[in-house]
Structure to design on (959 residues):
């Protein structure tokens, strides 16, 4: 390992610009002669639009133009597409309602886009919007996930009976029923996975810039995947060919899923820029973000676990209602299905599993993937019911897990819910986490806490996730409407420096460092001579973007494939230069060497020869050194691990304090351990936020968003969370099907933390007869749970 | 009615036309093109906009530009010489991986510098409490806390630049 190669904790190369205020985020960009857009949004959760009067507003100072849904429809603008087609149990396709960027006739959630005002300044646009008269006829709204499909509930879409988008299932129902029939014990649990808001600190923004001279469009946007936006907006919404449309996602201030999707505002500013012949900038304020960024989670689940008398798992059943909000966001439909139902084997040998998911429309902001996406929901369900089963069976929760783990010699392991795990060692991370947390010493700590009047609890979660999304043929067979490969280009310049173009966008993950480490390691070129380029469709050949912990596993492998091509070409050139047979050339430590001799050419010399081909095998190989590769993964990757959380609860106030939190993760091979740990920390706090603090709440009747700002939506702050002990597995199992052996690490923390925290709280409260508590376990909820069954029942 | 406002920003005197309602952060970002100061919320909660006004950290979204008349304002751009070595607090953030997407970072660093001036060797708990008004969604705070403690020590041992 060199100090900039694979495995080194290289300090990040992107940090200098961020630390000195020189980052370039979308809102930092200004185009000459730029105008500003303000989006008029619905104040109602559900209402018919009887008419929109804009005459007065159009005359307001500074106004350049006002457009409504009717204007966009008249121009043939299409709706925002959904990228994944899910079929119901009966084989029928999901209900796919239209999703126009500006709504012409009926608003379906608070914040729905009704009109855009474009003016010389944002203040002028906002003021003018106040004089637009929209004649709304309010309609009853449906908000509640569990109620949505019930008869008599208000209907969001006429074509979606019982507000149902699809009624899907996976697994063998008959086998699962049989397993339950033969069970010695069945544990049952009802739980809610609370709705969350991703809340990247950079609000979304978009600048549409139509060039009247060339007819080219440029969109600057806060996106995790600019090529996907170009594809979706170009092909489906605005019907623009790719060569006329450039999408730039410059520095992006966090995404966590919420910046994957194609949003209405992107289409609006791009389209309207041509209409007015000037650039248009739109930047969300935080209140707008709360009512327009796709939200996360929101599942209501009943599950059951069947066991034999020794606690061996025989079968698992889960029935979930998933809230998709008012419209289908880009990847919304695959989240509760293929990213959730397929994960229900977890790390266990459960032989029979059956899961059904009803996805419902409600008058709320659309729900889509948020850090973890489906996998946190599956893991929460599973790790909660395993703990409840342990309690009922009077088996130690660590023991019950160990008893049911897939053994480390059982790989590849085919689960009953479609996935095939390539490799893993769950015992190792469990043992490691138990040791790190001094699990054995917990009883004494509990006793000590008791003396101080505190309730102390410990909770375990052993998670697995399917990352490195995804083999295109598998995804396609399951309904994906896009491929899920990644693209890379390695351009070696004449003097040996290198530009690497990748479709994996970086918005906090540190690709500019870790990807450069991969290249430095493979080519033996100093890291200073390597530049990682991403985020611009005019520079990067193609890309499917960053989500599902796929960047290093899929994007990194694409880079490796391109590097292989560079080396193969270099060998041909070197063979000629060294007057040796190509087969005798080996590439090592940055040198092309004739095997068994000291004759060699440095990488830079070969690169130079490729561009100054005076003595060059022109009959065999073209000049230049610039190679591209597309990589489509052979399988998902399967990071796994165990988290242990220890809490202390003050029974008088219900306040929970996390006193210890340890994480032992198996991410396979690690490129940059410092970055990996940072990813885990961030995920853990998002998971702890879900468990203790965060919840997106609408008024059940009016559909008004009650948590529409940081004053009401409780974001984790520095003094809410502890420092962590984070380690990677001492017996890590490298991924078997990518050349780097990597699995991905971005989502693990958000997946494993919520059940670890809730298990710890339930453990602490178990002596008061509590067997479950919903997230977020706020002091009020905890206090009510402690103070008797009456309060609990009233909840 | 637009009026003229004058102040020093990062040691240079500047002036510009502002509306009565123009926020200091807007003046910095839009009039002076100092886009290192960020806006992450509209309720004065996130701290992405923290700058120093007369040596103290202030959320520049809570202050009108006209209120900064005559003041000495320091932004993230002024902490280290352009293109030069990082200020010890910035260096500590880099060394301890106290930033990911970088969006909260300017506000975090400016807050941290103010803390370090008041408290040469803050404890973990003191750092966490001080940063209560700065939200980071990426890092989970763990490494920010480490960075701030190390940055404060580095500033105290004399390597600390004076930003205001
Ligand atoms: S922008 Fe100033 S506190 Fe959020
Ligand atoms: S580094 Fe992204 S918000 Fe803090």
């Amino acid at each position: 390992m060199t100090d900039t190669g694979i495995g080194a904790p290289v300090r990040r190369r992107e940090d200098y610009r961020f630390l000195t205020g020189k980052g370039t985020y979308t809102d930092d960009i200004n185009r000459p002669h730029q105008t500003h857009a303000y989006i008029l949004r619905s104040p109602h959760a559900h209402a018919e639009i009887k008419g929109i009067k804009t005459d007065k507003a159009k005359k307001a100072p500074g106004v350049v133009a006002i457009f409504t849904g009717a204007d966009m429809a008249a121009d043939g603008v299409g709706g925002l597409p959904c990228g994944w087609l899910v079929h119901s149990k009966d084989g029928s396709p999901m209900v796919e309602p239209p999703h126009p960027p500006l709504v012409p006739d009926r608003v379906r959630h608070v914040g729905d886009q009704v009109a855009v005002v474009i003016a010389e300044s944002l203040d002028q646009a906002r003021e003018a919007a106040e004089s637009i008269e929209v004649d709304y006829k309010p309609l009853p709204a449906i908000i509640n996930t569990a109620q949505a499909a019930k008869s008599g509930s208000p209907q969001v879409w006429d074509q979606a009976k019982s507000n149902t988008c699809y009624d899907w299932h996976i697994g063998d129902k008959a086998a699962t029923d049989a397993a339950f029939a033969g069970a010695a014990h069945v544990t049952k649990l009802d739980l809610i996975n609370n709705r969350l808001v991703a809340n990247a600190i950079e609000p979304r923004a978009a600048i549409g810039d139509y060039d009247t001279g060339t007819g080219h469009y440029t969109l600057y946007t806060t996106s995790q995947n600019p090529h996907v936006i170009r594809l979706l907006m170009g092909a489906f919404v605005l019907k623009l060919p790719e060569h006329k449309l450039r999408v730039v996602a410059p520095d992006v201030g966090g995404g966590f899923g919420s910046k994957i999707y194609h949003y209405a505002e992107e289409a609006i500013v791009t389209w309207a820029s041509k209409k007015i012949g000037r650039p248009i900038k739109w930047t969300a304020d935080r209140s707008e973000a709360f009512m327009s960024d796709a939200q996360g989670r929101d599942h209501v689940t009943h599950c059951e676990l069947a066991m034999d008398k020794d606690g061996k798992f025989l079968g698992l059943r889960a029935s979930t209602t998933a809230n998709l909000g008012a419209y289908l966001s880009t990847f919304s439909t695959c989240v509760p299905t293929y990213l959730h139902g397929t994960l229900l084997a977890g790390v266990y040998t459960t032989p029979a599993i059956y899961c059904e998911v009803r996805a419902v429309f409600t008058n709320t902001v659309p729900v889509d993937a948020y850090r973890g996406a489906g996998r946190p929901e599956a893991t929460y369900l599973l790790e909660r019911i395993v703990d409840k089963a342990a309690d009922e069976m009077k088996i130690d929760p660590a023991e019950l897990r160990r008893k049911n783990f897939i053994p480390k010699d059982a790989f590849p392991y085919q689960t009953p819910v479609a996935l095939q795990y390539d490799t893993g060692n769950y015992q190792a991370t469990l043992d490691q986490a138990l040791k790190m947390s001094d699990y054995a010493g917990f009883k004494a700590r509990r006793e000590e806490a008791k003396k101080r009047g505190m309730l102390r609890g410990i909770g375990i979660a052993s998670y697995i996730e399917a990352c490195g999304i995804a083999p295109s043929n598998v995804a396609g067979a399951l309904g994906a409407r896009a491929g899920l490969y990644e693209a890379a280009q390695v351009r070696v310049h004449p003097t040996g420096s290198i530009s690497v173009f990748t479709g994996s966008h970086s918005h906090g993950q540190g690709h500019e460092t870790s990807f450069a480490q991969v290249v430095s390691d493979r080519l033996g070129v100093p890291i200073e001579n390597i530049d990682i380029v991403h985020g611009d469709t005019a520079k990067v050949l193609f890309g499917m973007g960053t989500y599902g912990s796929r960047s290093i596993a899929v994007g990194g492998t694409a880079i490796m494939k391109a590097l292989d091509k560079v080396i193969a070409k270099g060998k041909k050139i070197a063979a000629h230069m060294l007057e040796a047979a190509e087969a005798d050339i080996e590439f090592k430590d940055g040198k092309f060497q004739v095997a068994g001799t000291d004759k060699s050419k440095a990488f830079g010399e070969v690169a130079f020869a490729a561009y100054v081909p005076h003595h060059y095998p022109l009959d065999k190989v073209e000049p230049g050194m610039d190679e591209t590769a597309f990589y489509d993964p052979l399988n998902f990757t399967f990071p796994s691990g165990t988290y242990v959380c220890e809490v202390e609860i003050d029974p008088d106030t219900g306040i929970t304090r996390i006193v210890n939190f340890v994480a032992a993760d198996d991410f396979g091979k690690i490129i940059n351990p410092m970055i990996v740990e940072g990813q885990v920390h961030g995920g853990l706090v998002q998971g702890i936020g879900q468990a203790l603090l965060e919840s997106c709440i609408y008024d059940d009747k009016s559909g008004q968003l009650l948590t529409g700002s940081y004053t009401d939506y409780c974001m984790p702050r520095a003094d809410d969370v502890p420092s962590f002990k984070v380690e990677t597995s001492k017996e890590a199992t490298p991924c078997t099907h990518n050349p780097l052996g990597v699995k991905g690490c971005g989502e693990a923390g958000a997946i494993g933390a919520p059940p670890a925290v809730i298990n710890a709280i339930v453990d602490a409260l178990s002596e008061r007869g509590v067997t479950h508590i919903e997230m977020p376990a706020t002091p009020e909820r905890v206090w009510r749970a402690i103070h008797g069954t009456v309060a609990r029942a009233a909840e | 009615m637009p009026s003229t406002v004058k102040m020093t920003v990062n040691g240079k005197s500047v002036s510009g036309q502002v509306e009565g309602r123009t926020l200091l952060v807007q003046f910095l970002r839009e009039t002076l093109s100092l886009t290192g100061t960020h806006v992450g919320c509209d309720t004065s909660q996130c701290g992405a906009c923290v700058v120093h006004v007369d040596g103290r950290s202030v959320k520049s979204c809570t202050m009108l530009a006209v209120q900064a008349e005559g003041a000495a304002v320091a932004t993230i751009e002024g902490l280290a010489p352009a293109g030069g070595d990082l200020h010890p607090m910035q260096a500590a953030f880099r060394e301890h991986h106290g930033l990911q997407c970088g969006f909260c970072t300017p506000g975090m660093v400016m807050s941290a510098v103010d803390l370090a001036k008041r408290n040469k060797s803050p404890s973990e708990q003191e750092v966490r409490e001080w940063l209560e008004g700065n939200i980071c969604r990426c890092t989970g705070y763990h490494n920010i806390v480490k960075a701030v403690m190390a940055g404060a020590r580095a500033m105290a041992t004399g390597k600390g630049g004076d930003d205001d």
User: Anything to note?
Assistant: The domain at 295-470+635-787 of chain A is CATH 3.30.365.10 (Aldehyde Oxidoreductase; domain 4). The CA atoms of residues 38 and 117 of chain A lie 5 Å apart.
